[in-house]
Amino acid sequence: MDLGLKGRTALVTGGAAGIGAAIALELAREGCDVAIVDVRRDEKAEASLAAIAAAGVRATFHTADVRDFSLAERTVREVAAAAGRLDVLVCCAGVTDDALSWKMTEAQWDRVLDVNLKGCFAYCRAAGALMKDARAGRIVNIASINGLRGKFGQANYAASKGGMVALSKTLARELGKFGVTVNVVAPGMVRTEMAAVLPPEVIEKAVDETTLGRLAEPRDCAAVVAFLCSDAARHVTGQVVQVDGGQYL
Q1: H/E stretch holding 187
Q2: Where does the Ketoreductase domain start and stop, copy by copy (predicted)?
């Protein structure tokens, strides 16, 4: 399906692997030049870059810790300057560090909130300023259904993802009059390397929670993101789209 994204420029944080890589590839297949931001350029990152380039678009990699505000601003401006534009931002960089609330350390809390929520804000702040001036843009933040319902043993992760939802709705209000839409994709459990290390009984429970009887694949999330980045979704903003197969109803 041609979503009319050809020639646009997208920046995807956390685009080296997992859901982020699937999003980067989907946007590339729709014709976007794609800049990946991730903490390290490893074999997974190289594979993601190669897949993007194979789609016939420009692929670039930017090594960055998303928690670094000044680096976020420099990276966003560098991508926009090189392309002459920045049309799409997708914030997908995220980590988990689970523990029961009474056992969770300050370091565990800070790391997850800083990467997931502060990192999202850093890039939304920088990209939003450019999109505001251009009077056009699409921002999609990847949260989680656990940010909507809470999750046993994930006080830090659920709080960070819930914060991303509130942040996105606020940005939608602030940036709407400048032609910028801001939306959230909230997946349930997705078949990624992160999920693969979970105990089988945890995965089975997640499957049982769905109405479709299966977990999402990264491409399921990517397809929704591509739609939200397109002109077909020009009147959609401030929304949370759950890609969970009915896991949270």
Answers
A1: strand 180-187
A2: 8-188
Contact 244/213 with Cβ under 8 angstroms? Answer: no
> What is the value of pTM for the model shown?
0.97
DSSP 8-state assignment for residue 215: P
Reported as a pLDDT band with limits 50, 70 and 90, residue 198 is: confident
Q: Give the pLDDT confidence of 91-134 residue by residue, as tens digits.
A: 999 999 999 999 999 999 999 999 999 999 999 999 999 999 99
**How far is residue 131's CA from residue 139's CA, in Å, rounded to a whole number?**
9
Q: Which one is catalytic: 121, 123, 157, 227?
A: 157
Tell which residue, 221, 206, 204, has the closest CA to residue 20: 221
Residue ranges and CATH numbers for the domains of the chain are 9-242 (3.40.50.720)
Using CA atoms of 181, 185, 186, 192 in order, give the dihedral in degrees to the nearest 10. Answer: -150
How far is the C-alpha of 180 from the C-alpha of 227, rounded, in Å? 15
